[in-house]
Queue: 3 jobs
Job 1
Amino acid sequence: MISYIIWNVSPEIFTIPQIGDFGPFPVRWYGLLFAAGFLVGQQVMIHVFKKEGKPLEDIDSLTLYMVLSTVIGARLGHFIFYEPEVLFKKPLEVILPPYAGLASHGAIIGIITGLWLYSRSRTATGQTFLWVADRMVIVIALAGAFIRFGNLMNSEIVGKPTDVPWSFVFVQNTEFRQIPRHAAQLYESISCFILFFILLWIWNKYKSATPRGLMVGIFFVWVFTLRFLYEFLKENQEAFEANYLLNMGQILSIPAVLLGLYFIYQSRKSTHQLAG
């Protein structure tokens, strides 16, 4: 007997009715969870700053850098990696709604850029790039969990057909709704939640003594190794990926994993030098 989960959740929570010439405005789970990642993440960073004696007035600036760099990076990344022809033919689509395409690899590149811009004027307070990045990955892991759960609520980024008992039938997805499939979004969401608790535990244990780059390295290796593997369970996002041995998500994950290994190696090397 084949068992599966019928997933027929509406992506919309409610709709704000039309007021004059404006509206109506649907309020969606994805948008709420996306925003929650930043709001909850800000509270985590406030806790970190208090414990390590960093100026709390910098939190608002850090949050603004992260919001802008995440959205811009994810949006540009989608067009550069998946629809480059649109970027050149219709560049305004990058900034105009609806924002249907967001690429996580682009978001990471944007976040790295944003952290560098933020930290370069704050080294006097000990907020070097690696200090900030090591703590921000705690928040990014949590935000990733929220966003991937938002993808589940949207019935998007679905997995390939399967007969495992925890498979989902995505009723709201008109393209793939008929066949039980892997809930790849849920797999990634759970993985990010686990990583959040691991990174939070490491920071809570070492705080200011955390080896520089260690948590960044763990984040990259964990997230992108699992991303590489999960892609085997997912439907391709774009048609051109069917012609490749590996899809775009896997190709982009390989250098990210190597970068993570480099950060871990450097953090261990620095720790040994300090111990010596």
Note: Strands lie at 5-7, 12-16, 25-28, 168-170.
Job 2
Amino acid sequence: MRWWWREISGLVLPVDCGGCGRPRTALCEECAGALYGAGARRVRPDPEPGGLPVVHAAAGYEDAVRAVLLGHKERGALGLAGALGRALAGAVRASAPYAGGSGPLLLVPVPSARSAVRARGHDPARRIALSASAELRRTGVPARVLAVLRQRRAVADQSGLSARQRLVNLSGALAVAAGGARLLEGGRVVLVDDLMTTGASLAEAARAVGEAVGEAREFNGPGVLGAAVVAAPVSAFPSLRK
């Protein structure tokens, strides 16, 4: 019932801007511009984990963008999924050439732990991916979400872990569900998530998908995988580094 109440309350209760708190608007024009107005750019964490595909992000993870993502992810502001999906759709468009092929775009979200989904009452990355695929289809781009990745073992909480520790924590943790590889055939796979920090999750997702489709060793070359996220640390944007 928790998800149902969130959906209804988002429609009937007064809302403030998810980015800056300005009253009577779910997302003000200024915060929307910060989220998806600048256009998606390539991001590269430092250090960059092996196996990380080319990643594009819509915005830097700071200020209003950070507030919007946390509001949707942790505070149940589900009405923000539309704006976040629009941002992710822009990053997917930028990543599409790196996914290779000529088939439909297949958005594969990085899965959250089941315990995290239960605690939050929803799966943020999947919800945003669904919104992004709808946005892409509205603009004539064939796209659909394939949530084929699963966690096959428990992982520790990533917060507080270094880049190296995150890689070790996630190594071998993901797998494509039975029959999932067949669904991926003929499409252009773009891994999607709400946020990239060190890149460890996307690298592990790329390994799992590549292994499932028989491309287990080479992920960085064009024609294999692309990846798209709503936001990444400012330090991962060469043009935004302070």
Note: The first strand starts at residue 41 and ends at 43.
Job 3
Amino acid sequence: MAERGSYAKGVARREEILAAALDVFSREGYRGTSLREVAKQVGVSLPGLMHYFESKEHLLTAILQKRDEVDTATYSSNDDLIDGLVRIMRHNRDVPGLVQLFITLAAAAEDPSHPAHPFFIDRYSVVLSTLADAIRDRQAAGTARADLDPEHIARVLVAVADGIQIQWALDRSVDMAGDIERLWAALSA
């Protein structure tokens, strides 16, 4: 029984670390955040923090996984995933550090040996599939053109969403959510 309690405490502590890291990275960004700051926020040493993760890259990947869980629960809609994408893009204006972390890790993850590589492969598989399903749902409801290829349009929406975040990181006047909405309106008109 002691192992189960110890395991549960370890899982809870890891979740506490991820919640703190998500908060710190959203405010301070990838370059502005020290892992010591995250450790201090949860009341552990840096080695104590790293006890829960294989490496810094594994921790950063876990932060993005946690971000996706929180964003999906908070901003996605079971009714319409395209509207959920727009809400997430609106939210991303408020968490520039997480956008910076996403961009940085996505670039690093092109290397198959990087710890974030499987995360991004899985993430894109799920996101593309769910967006294609949302497009099919809109087609069935008569609110999207029937001649659209759902898989192709999902890929274009994701490519634009990722690319517009890079543009926004360089120029904060870019309207990420508005650009996605306008693109969808043009594609589905």
Note: The chain has a mean pLDDT of 91.
